[in-house]
Amino acid sequence: MLGVSIPTGYPCLRALILRDSYSRHALYVLLLTFLCYTLYHASRKPISVVKSVLHAAEFSGDNAGDKSVGWKPFDQENWSQLIGGLEYIYLLVYAVSMVTSGYVAERINLRHFLAFGMLFSGLTNIAFGFAYYCGIHNYLYFFCVQVLSGVTQASGWPAVVTLMGNWWGKTRRGFIMGLWNAHTSVGNILGSLVAGYFADSDWGAAFAVPGITLVVGGLLVYCTLIDRPERLQLPGRFARPPHLSLPNLKSAVESPCLPRRPSSNRLEELPCQSDTTTTAKQAIGLCDALRLPNVLAYSLLLFFAKLVSYTFLYWLPNYLVVVEPGTVTAEQAAQLSVLFDLGGIVGGILAGWLSDPKLIAYQALASAGSTTSLVLLFCCGLTVNGPYALITTAVSADLGTQHALQGRARALATITAIIDGTGSLGAALGPFLTGILVPFGWSAVFLMLLTSDLLALTISLWIVCRSRRSTVRPSVLDARLKYTTLRS
């Protein structure tokens, strides 16, 4: 190790499994980050499943508070606004905290950042379930728990994407990130199944169980994770061959890493991609990141994509209960909603279909027990989550390591946080608007989703046209950043 404390469990892990293989270390980081974000998403799912249990089927004040007919204060006619408010404040705080998390993640050890983020995220989940066992009915309590949850949950995404960028670089990025991003849907599936199992009988456990697993995952990260390969003396990718040592390079005038300055005959070493240099360690500012090509455009695109995706995430189980009253339980709705996330896994890999026709068909033909509805639900997951998955993984990673940065590799967390943070504002707006529109009928909700998809499509077309022009006319910003980097 290079000036960094060794995680407690790492020596044993390296001796038994990882050894001195760079590829094994990279694969372990892939699997560990996959597990981490699976647990993050599993812990976010319970509120969407338990929603139909928290509010009463009939708004009777006589038995209010009894778990069979609702849970105060959600057993009222304005239940959709109350629950929508909890979802909105969580996602709003999450979106704001995301930018801050990306900024902080580039400046501290990612192992500590991710581990403590998982620990406190798990505790907030447990605190929400704690209300069931202690008979807490104060709306302010649930509100505060959601605020804390939004802050702590924002630690996950900038950390895991940066870890993947550190260890995997640009090697088959689209394919690897497409497979890796299945953690979102896998987490949703596991969260739905666990929450659905406990929802009708013990909804507190629907929050507590994912919370406990998140805490355990945080301990695993703290004990075993190495955040950057440069911290290890591994043969392979970051080992400098003897012929690239500085004395030998001084005699190799043709080396692209050693340009000759016109005013001097002296050769000066400039940073190569394989080196861990001051330039590579330099973190980028928020304003500089926003000025990078396509960062703002993809942020707006993700805003509308996540608006649609998170509306499904938070309201689909409740919609499945409502579409056929009395025939679908909370557990069955959770199991049926899994099809949306299964489609999301496939869509995250394919990431190429338009979602509007599927949304129209699903709203028109939805019936929780029909085969047609189940097929359409799978297709909606494939087409809605596919582009969303691509933007949050491969696209964000490419923008965070693009040529305009000139080796400033630590911009990845900030750019990822900006894009996903903006997208999370859309994720906050979608469920909030749904809570307002539900009393006017589900047709109004689907109209909102279709409008969002059309706006996302418009932005996508603009990005394509702009990218084609930029291949002919190099970006002025690219040249400016290159000049600044060379001067420094």
Automatic annotation (TrEMBL):
InterPro entries tied to this protein: MFS, MFS_dom, MFS_trans_sf, Sugar_P_transporter
Q: Specify the protein's topology with respect to the membrane.
A: Multi-pass membrane protein
One Pfam family named in its UniProt record: MFS_1
Q: Where are the transmembrane segments?
A: 26-43, 88-105, 112-133, 139-163, 175-199, 205-225, 295-316, 336-354, 440-465
PROSITE patterns noted in UniProt:
MFS
Source domain of life: Eukaryota
One GO CC annotation, please? Answer: membrane
- This one is known as Sugar phosphate exchanger 3
